[in-house]
Amino acid sequence: MPVIVTGDDYLQSVRDRGTTLYMFGERIEEPADHPIIQPSINALKATYDLAIDEPELATAYSPIIDARVNRFLHVAESPQDLMDKHAMQRRLGQLTGTCFQRCTGLDTISVLHSATYDVDAKHGTSYHQRYLRFLAEAQRHNILIAVGMTDPKGDRGKPPHQQADPDLFLHVSGRNEHGVFLRGAKAHMTGGWNQHWICVVPTMNLGEADKDYAVVGIVPADAEGITYVYGRQASDTRALEPGTIDKGNAKFGGQEVLVHFDDVFVPWEHVMLDGETEFAQLLVSRFTAYHRASYVCKTGLGDVLTGAAAEIVDMNGVPGAAHIRDKLVEMVHLNETIYSSSIASAARATQLDSGIWMNDEMLSNVCKHNVTRFPYEIARLAQDLAGGIVATMPSEADLRSEEVGPLLERMLAGREDVPTEDRMRIIRLIENLTLGRNAVGYLTESLHGAGSPQGQRIQIWRGMDVELKKVLARKLAGIEESPT
Question: Which keywords fit this entry according to its UniProt record (predicted)?
């Protein structure tokens, strides 16, 4: 493992790895230098920079190594730890305006702390000690861990073992005295190429016939047999154009990759589950309890978008209009509702048998369900306030043109004391967050990340205890309970 202290150390750590990554049908020799990929690397760099700039927020004391560590490698030892985590996630959203790709790793190491402990308690395995040894090294070296949870799935009406192509779900393809081999793929892997290790976990409840699919393993991101295929994003090729205005957010962006495993070897020391199918659902359930509250990061993006909306109406000369203030208030109301449900889930956390704490499942699912809706309304209001020019504005090349540039300087102006270029930059930022590259992280990811809306509704139904609510209603209505 590399030893990383600063953001610049991180940038160096992902270079010269010899990975196999394809984009637009071509293998990219050095992904770290590619202009489409660099913004996503910058977003992860920010997680290191914040730990130096705001250590009280972005680091925590770890008893595992008796030292302070990056909070993204810290397992929660109290409800306050979880609340501090969510404050950090919001802050990084404010600083980057994008998905900074590290929450899945944090939430997975949190799940594995308790899950490996519970599997060992039932089966007498040694997964928990393996996990603790790996985590200690990860903390000492300050590395990044990507997570592969979502499988391609194929025919959604069939379990893994009934698929026509067994590789549509990642599975153990072989074993020997030294470890296991993994074959298949993981889809939508957030920041997959940008990180040092990949942890693969089951994506759904598994039966006894799916034992080979019940596997948790941790592999280096540059392991032999791994192929990355880069996911497209709206307006992604603007990163190849000169200038910075049309990019909207030129410095930061997200990343999703399809990752194929071609008999990738995992030594036993890095295997944390192997065939214990009854724990697959527990892993998924606990992951969602953590990760659905982690979508509090979208409030940081909401802060940026609200600020951009307020800025554009000011540049347009109408900041005091009552209907504009009302829309800005609504944007903040929706954003803070997301934040409050996340913080509430942390405050109501419960302690698990392994000693760590987990967000309240009901409130975490409520938080994520809010996230599937509210950013879309915040985005609509931002577009409403910005005007149709969000979707029709001429390019930066036109602004720089000797022929039409002077015309655009006049025709795209707002208040006379505001430079036209500044107004164009704010408009492009709003476009970036609501239609462009970072709308992937702010909108579509808000809808489907950590499970689509129905997933939260299922969990809310399971935990809502409707029978108790019926008893309360009958009692106040004066309906006597029937004797049992």
Answer: FAD, Flavoprotein, Oxidoreductase
